[in-house]
């Protein structure tokens, strides 16, 4: 893997992160009109459908270059398996996050979601992959920050915060799944199957548990379209493409920066206010994210190829 490809991967992930941070305010706005699973149905399915022109253009380009379609075919078993597994992880994460936003602020949700920076290294250890000492220091700092941000003085975790923390766990598994399958399949098709399967699962739950009203959906059109096109179609596809050139622990670090943009957008557009304790927690978490990023600046190419983070 070349240095330019590694830079390309990080730029793509950072762009996705900026979009995700701003999307929290639209997700929260959406809860004023429709249920979380109805929102997920339109969010993921519309995002998947928006990818169809991209797939068509990519196919046309490949045909002009006389490339075979064996690696990118929709019926490829590996592609279908990866897309469905990523779809399950995306459905669980997106649903927990969407429900959690009913009970917590967009800013706090952004920071808690970023706790996949803690969870991914733990999963990598279980998978017997190396994680450096600097990353573990960052993990410890992030835990302290999360405590200050979420745990009340009575040592309890609020419902919304707990749901979003569960979302971070699900996203951690999604990061590792994408890390595995993006190397073996076409990333755009992987995105399409991921989002469509997550949308269909959301739709099944919405039909069973929620009242789907057309007028409410129309009233929620702006949040749905923003999240479907920018967050799902563009940002998640940038994630999948970017992870092809970025080791999973570093990918989690870069994407955790969405917390900063979520807090900024929540304060500017939703007038959310954090306590001094919560702000201190955010500052410590942000410092942990920066330290984790700096820990990788001198990473040799060979260790990247082995999936190590030094």
Quick take:
This protein is mostly helical and 310 residues long.
Secondary structure layout plus pairing:
Elements: H1 3-30, H2 36-49, H3 52-64, H4 77-100, H5 106-113, H6 116-126, H7 133-150, H8 159-181, H9 187-209, H10 214-219, H11 221-243, H12 248-255, H13 258-269, H14 276-294, H15 301-305
Q: What does this protein look like?
A:
The protein is mainly α. The protein has one domain. The protein is 76% helix and 0% strand. Helix 1 packs antiparallel against helix 11. It is globular, with a radius of gyration of 19 Å.
Helix/strand/pairing class, anyone?
mainly alpha
CA radius of gyration is 19 Å
Nearest-integer average pLDDT: 80
Number of helices: 15
Task: Report the uncertain regions.
Answer: 67-74, 297-310
Helix content: over 70%
Total of domains: 1
Q: What is the helix/strand order? A: HHHHHHHHHHHHHHH
Shape: globular
Largest sheet: none
Question: Which key phrases capture this entry?
Answer:
310 residues, mainly alpha, 0% strand, disordered C terminus
